[in-house]
Each structure stands twice: as C-alpha cells, then as structure tokens.
Amino acid sequence: MTFLFKNYLLNILKCAILSLSKKKWGKILEHYFTNNQNLKSEIRSINFSFDAYNFMFKSDNGVFSKNKIDYASLFLVKTFFANKEKDYDRILDIGCGYGFIGITLSKVLNKHVDMYDINKRAVHLCKMNIKENGVDATAEESNIYGNVEGKYDLIITNPPIRAGKDTLMEFLTGGLARLNKDGELWFVISKNQGAKSVQKEVEKIGTIVKVDQSKGFYVFCAKN
C-alpha cells in the first residue's frame, strides 16, 4: 500500500468520524434548543419517590434525560432539601424540561412554582406532569428569561451546559438579576464543564457558596 493511498484512507476515516460526531452532538443539543415537530413521539413514564412522596413523570423523545431522572438534577434537589435554611414564596424553575425539579419542589414545599423552558415538547410534557402529580404550578415557553416576569425568592436550575458558556452565564446572571432581596439561586454544574471558572464569574457580581459535590457535580447557592 503506497504512502499516498494510506493518507487517502486516513482522510476518509477522519471525515467519517467527524460526521458521526456532529450527528451525535447535534442530537444532544436538539434536546435543549430545537422544536423538531417531525420528531416521532414515544411517550414513556418515569416513576420517582422522594421521602414520603411519589411522583410519575411523562417523558418523550426530544427532551433532556428522556428515560430517567438525571443524576445532576436529582443531586440538586436532594442537596437543596438537605441544606435549605428558609421558606420561599415565589419560586422559579428555569430550563425546567419535563418538570422534575419544579414539580418535586412544589409538592414537597406545598408552594406554587413557575416553570419555563424553550422546548415546546418539554413544556407540553411539563403541563401534563403538573396535572398528573396534582401540584400548584405553571409551565410556559421562554428563551431563558425572555418571557419571565417579576422577581423571585428562589430560582433553581440544572442549566444546559452544552449550549455553551455564554448561554450558561445568561441563566446565572439573569437569575441573580431576578432575585428578591435575600433571594437565592441554586444550580448544579459538572466540574469537567467549568464549575470552578463559573464560580469565579459569579463571584464578580454576587456571592456564591459551593454547598456540596458528588460524582464530579457541584451544587452552588448564589445571592446578589
């Protein structure tokens, strides 16, 4: 096999790998930021228990963590309940997906929760799950805080890290700007996806405390 032919085969292999990689990441990003109306619907149920509370969530193709409650969101919720030191009147779950975080908080705290997501299918599922779990909550479509009105005592989020750092920081800086006095912004982020650099960025505009960490995920509580 000649040197030139080897290089030719190597270039073909590189192009194939790049094409597969783009398809893979394209599908991941689609979970968060596209509304593919042609994506086949395959609704499935996810059962979940927290303390004495039982939940059932409807999920579907085209939403984040469609087959199970993702570890980061679960860790965020458990850490929040283990460490919260106050009550909250106005609560916002931003980037809510099919509603796991906001619905769990609404039922356990017995409070109204506003939930927003950019993904139409996720919002539709969230509305179904609000009704299914009998909680006091609303779900609406919004590009981050675009349709969010007013300020909150608690904003909680598992932000879409793979959307890029600029989008991530919009979730966090926008959240801090929408807190009432003494309000709190709780969020989870992976160490491998820039947790420490994000912490430094937030410190420029507010105060932030790392509450806990597990399996490479950090849960933070920030205030303005």
Structure explained in plain terms:
By secondary structure, the chain is of the alpha/beta class. The chain folds into 2 domains: 1-34; 44-223, Rossmann fold. It has helices at 3-33, 71-83, 100-109, 120-133, 165-177, 195-203, and strands at 44-50, 53-59, 91-94, 113-117, 137-141, 152-157, 179-190, 207-214, 217-223. Strands 5-4-3-6-7-9-8 form a 7-stranded mixed β-sheet, with helices on both faces. Strand 1 and strand 2 form a beta hairpin. Helix 2 (71-83) packs parallel to helix 3. The longest helix has 31 residues, at 3-33.
Describe the protein's topology.
Elements: H1 3-33, E1 44-50, E2 53-59, H2 71-83, E3 91-94, H3 100-109, E4 113-117, H4 120-133, E5 137-141, E6 152-157, H5 165-177, E7 179-190, H6 195-203, E8 207-214, E9 217-223
Parallel strand pairs: 3-4, 3-6, 4-5, 6-7
Antiparallel strand pairs: 1-2, 7-9, 8-9
Helix pairs in contact: 2-3
CATH fold field value of the largest domain: Rossmann fold
Instruction: Output the CATH class name of the largest domain.
Output: Alpha Beta
In spatial order, strands of the major sheet run 5-4-3-6-7-9-8
Global outline: globular
Distance between the termini: 65 Å
Kindly state the number of beta strands: 9
Counted up, domains total: 2
Identify the quaternary structure here: single chain
Mean pLDDT: 89
